[in-house]
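ligand=AR6
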Amino acid sequence: MIEILVADITHLEVDAIVNAANGSLLGGGGVDGAIHRAAGPELLDFCRGLGGCPTGEVRLSPGFDLPASHVLHAVGPIWQGGMAGETAQLRSCYVAAFECALSQACTSIAFPAISTGVYGFPKRPAAETALAVMQQYEEQFARVIACCFIEEDAAIYRDILGR
Ligand code: AR6
């Protein structure tokens, strides 16, 4: 069953947490900033070697000082009104993160609400996309966590799942 938590994703003891990164992979604000702060400076050094990441794709790093073993850096789309392929790109982030987690034999994974902060993707359609992909993969994992930062966001996820 998909777990909907209200939490700071940097606190979660799971095999992999997903980061809502930008294409440079060199850090930023929001959840990206929180993950870099909690992981420590080794994460930035590692990410410098990755050479960036296109929108809709994911790059893997260790968790360094995080309780999570891995960080899957996903680059979500910047919302431009919905006609620029944003939904397909967002979906691609979730699929790529799950596939990368499977390739690393991860059994637990937590996602923030990618693109719904600074990148402006409307929260409800973003949650619908996230949950549709989570439902496709949940049987292959012991834990799939939708990690919301505020209760209001968790309520959207619960509403979509009819809980
Ligand atoms: N734990 C869980 N969720 C969080 C946390 C946290 N510690 N902090 C924020 N959120 P955003 P984006 C939620 O803006 O829209 C960065 O500068 C937040 O409430 O972090 O994909 C990157 O470097 C929201 O629901 O990511 C990029 O430049 C969600 O995380 C850009 O922002 C995503 O908000 C990416 O923008």
